[in-house]
């Protein structure tokens, strides 16, 4: 497989190109291919199987004894060899064994033979242990990345539900007062408006609760989200794989969602055309098509957002981050919730004010006001990040 071959090329490029190392590369490639086939048989995707095979046999120092290349690696990273004793002169015991009268010889008194002292044993040194990363950050592991991706998928579903609730929240407020103007409707306009406001507040509260739940799901992975980790080639390859696997579904979901968004103005336009002096609907139903527009917008978001879950984890694990950059520091949770709810509430206010109050001439002012509020929230968030510890 190309991913495995590319990884092995990078792994063995830093070692001498000897026949033994080439043979070792062939053996490692065979081991990874076998592990890759086993993972594929167990149901994993192509990229997940490759990442698992690399994770199992990608540490060359760990499998060096099995490959018989410890000497080659030691030669590249020399480590003092242990010795139990220094060199000693050989003693010849094959001399003549006949007794010699030493008294008849004028010899100086014998001096003790001094043997060389054995060299001191070197202190144990870690052999073939890779140095710590220069950044001082802990590397990300494949298990940690896999857990983060699973939690990111759950968080994306929670975000989707929250956004859909925000978009649908004003439907009751728009529909009930319009229907209350019809003869025979059991609710008065005041009661209908009160019910609509209550439903709006309850739905927005549910959406905010989902956003807070999403933040709790992602909180254990804050180190990865903020980029405070050392990249790992295996994890980067795996992250690229999950993005590629999800690209097809994401593109199809985007096409369907764009279709829903293009069609979304039709209910509102149809309501305006069918209501009036010449229309079949009574004028009391002005604005009744707006809920249909919101339903189509929410449908498109509900289709697209879950299919795009892999983009976030892939960008987090693939990109090079600066842990000291301002952009990597998240906004406070309250600011994030306020930003998420601002534009749906602005849309609901604009539509309710325009249709219920027939104030198209001034209702557009909610948009620049919302822009000012958003700018103020961003300024508060920037100030908070400026005071946060680095």
Automatic annotation (TrEMBL):
Identification of the protein by name: Uncharacterized protein
Keyword match Transmembrane helix: yes
Membrane-spanning intervals of the chain: 158-179, 191-212, 253-276, 288-312, 333-353, 365-384
Region (Disordered): 81-135
UniProt feature, compositional bias: Pro residues: 107-134
Keywords from the UniProt entry: Membrane, Transmembrane, Transmembrane helix
Source domain of life: Bacteria
């Amino acid at each position: 497989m190309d991913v495995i071959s590319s990884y092995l090329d990078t792994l063995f490029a830093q070692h001498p190109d000897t026949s033994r190392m080439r043979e070792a590369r062939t053996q490692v490639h065979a081991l990874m291919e076998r592990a890759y086939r086993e993972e594929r048989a167990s149901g994993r995707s192509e990229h997940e199987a490759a990442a698992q095979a690399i994770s199992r046999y990608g540490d060359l120092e760990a499998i060096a004894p099995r490959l018989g290349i410890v000497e080659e690696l030691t030669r590249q990273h020399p480590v003092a060899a242990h010795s139990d004793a220094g060199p000693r002169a050989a003693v010849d015991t094959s001399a003549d064994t006949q007794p010699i009268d030493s008294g008849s010889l004028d010899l100086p008194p014998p001096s003790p033979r001094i043997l060389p002292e054995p060299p001191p044993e070197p202190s144990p040194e870690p052999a073939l242990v890779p140095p710590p990363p220069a950044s001082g950050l802990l590397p990300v592991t494949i298990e940690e990345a896999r857990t983060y991706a699973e939690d990111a998928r759950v968080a994306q579903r929670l975000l989707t539900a929250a956004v859909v609730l925000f978009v649908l929240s004003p439907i009751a407020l728009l529909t009930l007062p319009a229907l209350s103007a019809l003869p025979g409707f059991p609710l008065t306009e005041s009661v209908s408006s009160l019910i609509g406001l209550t439903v709006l507040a309850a739905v927005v509260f549910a959406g905010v609760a989902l956003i807070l739940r999403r933040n709790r799901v992602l909180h254990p992975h804050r180190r990865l989200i903020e980029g405070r980790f050392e990249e790992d080639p295996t994890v980067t390859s795996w992250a690229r794989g999950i993005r590629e696997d999800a690209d097809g579904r994401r593109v199809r979901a985007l096409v369907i969602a764009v279709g829903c968004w293009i069609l979304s103005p039709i209910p509102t336009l149809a309501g305006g055309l069918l209501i009036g002096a010449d229309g079949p609907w009574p004028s009391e139903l002005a604005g009744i098509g707006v809920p249909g527009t919101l339903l189509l917008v929410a449908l498109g978001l509900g289709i697209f957002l879950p299919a795009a879950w892999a983009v976030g984890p892939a960008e987090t694990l693939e990109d090079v981050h600066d842990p000291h950059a301002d952009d990597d520091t998240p906004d406070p949770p309250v600011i994030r919730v306020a930003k998420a709810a601002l534009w749906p509430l602005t849309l609901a206010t604009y539509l309710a004010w325009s249709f219920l109050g027939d104030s198209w001439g001034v209702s557009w002012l909610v948009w620049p006001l919302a822009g000012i509020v958003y700018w103020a929230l961003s300024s508060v968030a920037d100030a908070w990040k400026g005071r946060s510890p680095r």
